[in-house]
Amino acid sequence: MLNRRLTLAAAAFALMPAVAFAAEKSAMSSEGIFVLEVILLLLVGRGIGELLERLGQPAVMGQLLGGILLGPSLLGWLWPQAEQLVFAGDASQKSMINAIAQLGILMLLLLTGMETDLRLVRRVGRACFSISAAGVAVPFALGFVAAQFMPDNLLAAGSERVVAGLFLGTALSISSVKIVAMVVREMNFMRRDLGQVIVSSAIIEDTIGWVIIAITIGIATHGRIEAGSLAFTLAGVGAFMAFSFTLGRRIVFDAIRWTNDTFHSEYAVVTVILAIMGAMALITDLIGVHTVLGAFVAGILVGESPILSRHIEGQLRGVITALFMPVFFGVAGLSADLTVLVDPELALLTVALVAIASIGKFGGAFIGAELAGMSRSEGVAVGCGMNARGSTEVIVASIGLSIGVLSHTLFTMILTMAVITTLAMPPTLRWALGRLPVGEVEKKRLEREEIDQRGFVANLERLLVVVDEGVVGRFTAYLAGVIGAGKPTTVLHTSGESEADPGEAAHLKEIEKAAEEGREAAREVDEEPAREAPLTRRRHDDPLSAEAVAKEARKGYGMLVIGLGRAVTSKGSFSRRLNEIAGAFDGSLCLVLKPAGAGRQMPRLGPGSGKILVPVNGTAIARRGAELALSIASVTNAPVKVLYVARVARDEPRDTVSHRRREAVLKDIVALADRYGVEVETAIRSRAAAADAIARQAGRSAALIVMGVARRPGNELIFGETTSGVLQRCPCPVVLVSDARLRRDDGERESLRSGTG
């Protein structure tokens, strides 16, 4: 496999001379050469990046190396005519590919900001602040001092040594969050305490670094340090940051939310995100600092937006990583000329720069870890982790070259240092992390988070709720508030068919109040408060149509919650209206139902109420129902009973594989309940039919039944005989949690496995 990928990478690079020869013979137009440049940068960069990733190295370095190989460092040395023809044409030709690269810088900073998790920084605590402070200060000081002793021929013409020192010091002091997070995640350390400290420290360094580099660039544009302009720049940056994280944060959230809810055209949210990035980049440009700061802060705000789903983020990430990233890093590599390192003096200076950068970053991070009270082994791991420059260094160096602060030779030296430190970081960090044991407290936390990763409720991104103004609608709104706390939720409410008398019908405000009460109750018990999420309310005077639900569903929702009066017939089937609304949604369903035999009022869940009964049978969908029930119980403090239902022969021994499997299923539910902080009672009913066992247990003490059921294929809602029997015989409300709409062949296979369906 590795040899095959190596062959593909070599073939992509070998293709370039042939294409260049053909271009020379056919007198290709400037537009054609531009397209050729993009194609070569994409193919060669992606090919080498894929190879490096297979070797445990960051793929972004392959894209940089691809540009270096296509530039004067190799191709220009072996075949200068081809390199000159394709990549070193006239100024107008270069400006075309450079425009893509400059836009790529903004796009990369937008993506970096979106990956900056400030909540992680707040959760980790004070250790990351001392690490990041020392990790920035030490290499910054060393870089600034080194610039004062550099030969004059390494400085750009007209550049002041002090300004170059500020720029070099800043360049050496920033770590690459992307590279650090990649290695920590690969080592399964992202959820470990130390892994979170390392990533959080890199996030803080990155944030501080981009503020410093923006100010440094503002100074560099004046050519020297002026007290008045520096004060104006500092004040402008301070005002911009204060506005961004207060009023600007709300503006960004509302703009993304409004676009997602209003526009019907494809990728409308992506367009608005790019417009937000451009507007904030323009603001920073107007206050005298580089546009990168605006793009980075825009990325942070966009990444924190509660309406930003993984689907939307994936669309944006796709175009950046597929086009802008390879082109930008490829162009950066084209600007480097490694042939200058043939000079022994420059080679030694490059080695010295690598040593200064590595010692400064490792030493600063290690000192910060010591000040934070961490062990020596942890300090070594932190120092190794902070030493990756990667994409961040390349961006900074490219900006310095473009504004005339760095010479081409110094730019090449910095790029060489970035490549060496980035390639050295993964193996050294793996070695350091591999020497650290897991403590007992941390082990328990990791086990809890492992359960969360596999969870259904924890991974829901957005809820769509359809309710009427009856008691079922109010109860459903409350449950949706409990389940959807911290998640964007849209409530569609209609007068509909209510079982309540007109004088008892709930007003719109009561539905809203019920949803808010559910959210507030969930927030009170949340150990780690979720980010603020909008609750959107929309009223439909006429009975809600399936078309209205389908139109809303296109905006992206993880689950549809439905609570309508008179939705269940006396035979345990569903009303036409419920079938139509549910049929308009292809994702997971949560149906809150009041069977015909249930009382007029919905239950009040709490310590003194009846139990939440959870039937399970070992399927994944049954476990999903159990998780939903536990999430409700964790907020309401209602008691929970888990009932394993299965038909078993009377003479079956207790030590069979089937019996051990049933016990394993219940043990898994108990572990899940422990994660939610809920005590559960478990029982196995194996002699009676599933519906009979559930109905008998419900008649004793159940206030609510929560079942995970498989959704059969077809236009109507069908969940099987067990579900119909429960809805016919049980005297309490029932919540059904189903999976997404299945194709017929998938549904047939699932029905063979599902007893409760």
Automatic annotation (TrEMBL):
<dbReference type="InterPro" id="IPR050794">
    <property type="entry name" value="CPA2_transporter"/>
</dbReference>
<keyword id="KW-0813">Transport</keyword>
<feature type="domain" description="Cation/H+ exchanger transmembrane">
    <location>
        <begin position="41"/>
        <end position="432"/>
    </location>
</feature>
<dbReference type="Pfam" id="PF00999">
    <property type="entry name" value="Na_H_Exchanger"/>
</dbReference>
<dbReference type="InterPro" id="IPR006016">
    <property type="entry name" value="UspA"/>
</dbReference>
<keyword id="KW-1133">Transmembrane helix</keyword>
<feature type="signal peptide">
    <location>
        <begin position="1"/>
        <end position="22"/>
    </location>
</feature>
<keyword id="KW-0406">Ion transport</keyword>
<feature type="transmembrane region" description="Helical">
    <location>
        <begin position="348"/>
        <end position="373"/>
    </location>
</feature>
<dbReference type="InterPro" id="IPR006153">
    <property type="entry name" value="Cation/H_exchanger_TM"/>
</dbReference>
<dbReference type="Pfam" id="PF00582">
    <property type="entry name" value="Usp"/>
</dbReference>
<feature type="transmembrane region" description="Helical">
    <location>
        <begin position="162"/>
        <end position="185"/>
    </location>
</feature>
<feature type="transmembrane region" description="Helical">
    <location>
        <begin position="320"/>
        <end position="342"/>
    </location>
</feature>
<feature type="region of interest" description="Disordered">
    <location>
        <begin position="516"/>
        <end position="539"/>
    </location>
</feature>
<feature type="transmembrane region" description="Helical">
    <location>
        <begin position="227"/>
        <end position="247"/>
    </location>
</feature>
<feature type="transmembrane region" description="Helical">
    <location>
        <begin position="128"/>
        <end position="150"/>
    </location>
</feature>
<keyword id="KW-0472">Membrane</keyword>
<keyword id="KW-0812">Transmembrane</keyword>
<feature type="transmembrane region" description="Helical">
    <location>
        <begin position="60"/>
        <end position="79"/>
    </location>
</feature>
<feature type="transmembrane region" description="Helical">
    <location>
        <begin position="267"/>
        <end position="283"/>
    </location>
</feature>
<feature type="domain" description="UspA">
    <location>
        <begin position="611"/>
        <end position="737"/>
    </location>
</feature>
<feature type="transmembrane region" description="Helical">
    <location>
        <begin position="197"/>
        <end position="221"/>
    </location>
</feature>
<dbReference type="InterPro" id="IPR006015">
    <property type="entry name" value="Universal_stress_UspA"/>
</dbReference>
<feature type="transmembrane region" description="Helical">
    <location>
        <begin position="99"/>
        <end position="116"/>
    </location>
</feature>
<feature type="transmembrane region" description="Helical">
    <location>
        <begin position="289"/>
        <end position="308"/>
    </location>
</feature>
<dbReference type="InterPro" id="IPR038770">
    <property type="entry name" value="Na+/solute_symporter_sf"/>
</dbReference>
<feature type="transmembrane region" description="Helical">
    <location>
        <begin position="32"/>
        <end position="48"/>
    </location>
</feature>
<keyword id="KW-0732">Signal</keyword>
<feature type="transmembrane region" description="Helical">
    <location>
        <begin position="394"/>
        <end position="420"/>
    </location>
</feature>
<comment type="similarity">
    <text>Belongs to the universal stress protein A family.</text>
</comment>
<protein>
    <submittedName>
        <fullName>Cation:proton antiporter</fullName>
    </submittedName>
</protein>
